Amino acid sequence: MRKYMLKICGQMIRAKRKQFGFTIEELADKAHVSISYLARLERGELTDTTISKLDQVLTALDLNLVDVLLSDKALDPALTDLIHKLRGLKSEESARIAKAILALLK
């Protein structure tokens, strides 16, 4: 995974951890990773990691890799919320709503 994406991921993880009120130790325990790993991840010091290890941390914070990929500072938070809501629906309903939104934007 590229260092840039890991840096963004680390920033998101730190912000979400603080939002939930977790200490770094509590999150490391919940995600089954070392405190050192999590601290380096949050500081943007990791140059590589496995997807499964990263996913453990994200899952512990109710996040996923899609959140990271869509976290560009240019994206409005409402867009991320919309994507989460669409992903939470049944696929048929999600597709129907996505098509309606796209039709409105034309």
| Tally of alpha and pi helices | 7
Q: Globular, elongated, flat, extended or rod-shaped: what is the shape? A: elongated
Summarize the helix and strand pattern as letters: HHHHHHH
Helix content: over 70%
Largest sheet: none
Taking Cα atoms only, what radius of gyration do you get, to the nearest Å?
16 Å
Poorly predicted residue ranges: none
Could you tell me the strand content as a percent range? under 5%
Number of strands: 0
Commentary on this structure:
By secondary structure, this protein is mainly alpha-helical. 71% of the residues lie in helices and 0% in strands. The longest helix has 18 residues. The radius of gyration is 16 Å and the shape is elongated. The N and C termini lie far apart (35 Å).
